[in-house]
Amino acid sequence: MMKESNLSRVTEFVLLGLSSSRELQPFLFFMFLLLYIGILLGNFLIILTVTSDARLHTPMYFLLANLSFIDICVASFATPKMIADFLVEHKTISFEACIAQIFFVHLFAGGEMVFLVSMAYDRYIAICKPLHYMTIMSRRVCVILVLIPWGVGFIHTVSQLAFTVNLPFCGPNQVDSFFCDLPLVTKLACTDTYIISLLIVADSGFLSMSSFLLLVISYTVILITVRKGSSASMAKARSTLTAHITVVTLFFGQCIFIYVWPFSSFSADKVLAVFYTIFTPILNPVIYTLRNKEMKAAMSKLKSRYLKPGHVSAALRNVVFLEAK
Fold first, then answer.
1. Does 268 map to a domain?
2. What is the mean pLDDT of each run of 10 residues along the chain (325 residues)?
3. Which one of 8, 37, 253, 261 has the largest count of C-beta atoms within 10 Å of its C-beta?
4. Segment holding 26, helix H or strand E
5. DSSP 22
6. Is 17 left (phi over 0), alpha (psi -120 to 50) or beta?
7. How many structural domains does the chain have?
8. In this structure, is residue 150 part of a structural domain?
């Protein structure tokens, strides 16, 4: 039996990225750079709009602003490095940074799963118990609905890392993705990881499936209630619910396929990883703003406030004055 001291410990991993074609690298660099800038601008715009307009200081928009913050986190744990890696030939990541990526992806993704349940609870109270909405959805309850997802996400990611951090890595170090994803890294360990892989799938599967089932039940109850309401309230509720259900379907469809469905290929996993780390965070602002009249009105007000010709001229005069000094 080989002693542990004779094993060479892996100090870094090689990320194979999205494509091995060198001709595609510049195109992918500019495409994902623009998408990442769009994610930051779109989600920061929602946060700025909600915080600056007093009419949006309601539980629903408070939760929406927090969803935008989580989307920024989901997009930022790996995307900047992926963009930078398009410019280098050898895409490596240290062992510690790899573990950090695993920690943050499960913290943010697990937190977002539960956060979507919090948003569904808010819609359930608003539509099924409208007369008691402001009483039930107090500031304290809103804060709790934000803190619970972060707590669940932290417990989830710590439990996932407990399976991985002490595994011996002494040989293969190529990760067939653009970031360190737990199932792919676990397969590189110099030991039998079949039981560990089952535990990882069970952990992620329980969180994703239980959250998804809670969402299905809540939205089913809401839709039944909406059908019994007046035509005016039904139209407004359907518009809001369509946005929520679209986001839930996009997010959970990918996560369940990657972590629960056992027959997905690496290429499929790679495409879906791009989708939930990049395309979902950029689609959420579009879905929630294009179908929301209050958000569009608040954004128009924000635009007129900060982009008035008088404000722009004053800003330019200040710049010229400062340069003259």
1. yes
2. 52 86 88 94 92 90 94 93 90 92 92 91 89 92 96 93 83 87 87 85 85 86 75 61 73 63 53 81 80 81 70 47 44
3. 253
4. helix 25-52
5. T
6. left
7. 1
8. yes
